[in-house]
Design goal:
The complex is a heterodimer of chains A (113) and B (114).
Chain A (H helix, E strand, L loop, with lengths): L4 E3 L2 E4 L5 E6 L6 E8 L3 E9 L2 E5 L6 E5 L5 E5 L8 E8 L8 E2 L3 E5 L1
Parallel strand pairs in A: 2-11
Antiparallel strand pairs in A: 1-3, 3-8, 4-5, 4-9, 5-6, 7-8, 9-10, 9-11
Chain B lengths: L2 E3 L4 E5 L4 E3 L2 E3 L5 E8 L6 E7 L6 E3 L2 E6 L4 E6 L8 E9 L6 E2 L3 E6 L1
Parallel strand pairs in B: 2-12
Antiparallel strand pairs in B: 1-4, 3-9, 5-6, 5-10, 7-8, 8-9, 10-11, 10-12
Classes of the chains: A mainly beta (113), B mainly beta (114).
Chain lengths: 113, 114
């Protein structure tokens, strides 16, 4: 157990729907990162939050949004889902300095049908 | 801009062979961090090692070793006496000191055949 908890582990939904992925960071970690892993794009950085504030943005679609709550858990919201959004979504957490490296959760596998 | 290249898409070796996974990176920063992660068939991403750009000392951890060479912008990973449990996708990654995001390479899929 890495200490980073992601729920749900699997999610199957239809095109056009909206889903929410949840991440609880490791105890003491203030930063939460979201990544998307698909077969054709590899591991793509989506967004980072640090202590409730958005800190960095990557290749995140406008249909996607995220937030980090006061208890430091984070949610990634995916809306108007398309078949191409099917992927493994990872959350990672770290202490404030990146040099410690990420700790990843086990991921949420999203299948859009 | 940051970039990580892992030219080897797939590698197959027979158990007990040594195998080296290549990683070449690009960055304009003088301060940066390099990482290796392992993704076994179960899917989770496992942190293996972190190096900072000021520490070119090579490192050995059991059957794993890492060769960091700034002159060639490479951070290669060697598994000695490979085992079936080493079968996984291995990702090399880079982060510049002035950003908080880690950029991953495309990964190398390693299959160790018994």
């Amino acid at each position: 157990d890495s200490g980073v908890t992601q729920t749900p582990k699997h999610l199957i939904t239809a095109t056009g729907q909206r889903v929410t992925l949840r991440c609880s960071p490791r105890s003491g970690d203030l930063s939460v990162y979201w990544y998307q892993q698909s077969l054709d794009q590899g591991l793509q950085f989506l967004i980072q939050y640090y202590n409730g504030e958005e800190r960095a943005k990557g290749n995140i679609l406008e249909r996607f949004s995220a937030q980090q709550f006061p208890d430091l858990h984070s949610e990634l919201n995916l809306s108007s889902l398309e078949l191409g959004d099917s992927a493994l979504y990872f959350c990672a957490s770290s202490r404030d300095r990146l040099g410690y490296g990420y700790t990843f959760g086990s991921g949420t596998r999203l299948t859009v049908v | 801009a940051q970039k990580v290249t892992q030219a080897q898409t797939e590698i197959s070796v027979v158990e007990k062979e040594d195998v080296t996974l290549d990683c070449v990176y690009e960055t304009r920063d003088t301060t940066y961090y390099l990482f290796w992660y392992k993704q076994p068939p179960s899917g989770e991403l496992v942190f293996l090692i972190r190096r900072n750009s000021f520490d070119e000392q090579n490192e050995i951890s059991g059957r794993y070793s890492w060769n960091f060479q700034k002159s060639t912008s490479s951070f290669n990973f060697t598994i000695t006496a490979s085992q079936v449990v080493d079968s996984a996708v291995y990702f090399c990654a880079l982060s510049e000191a002035n950003t908080d995001k880690v950029i991953f390479g495309p990964g190398t899929s390693l299959s160790v055949i018994p």
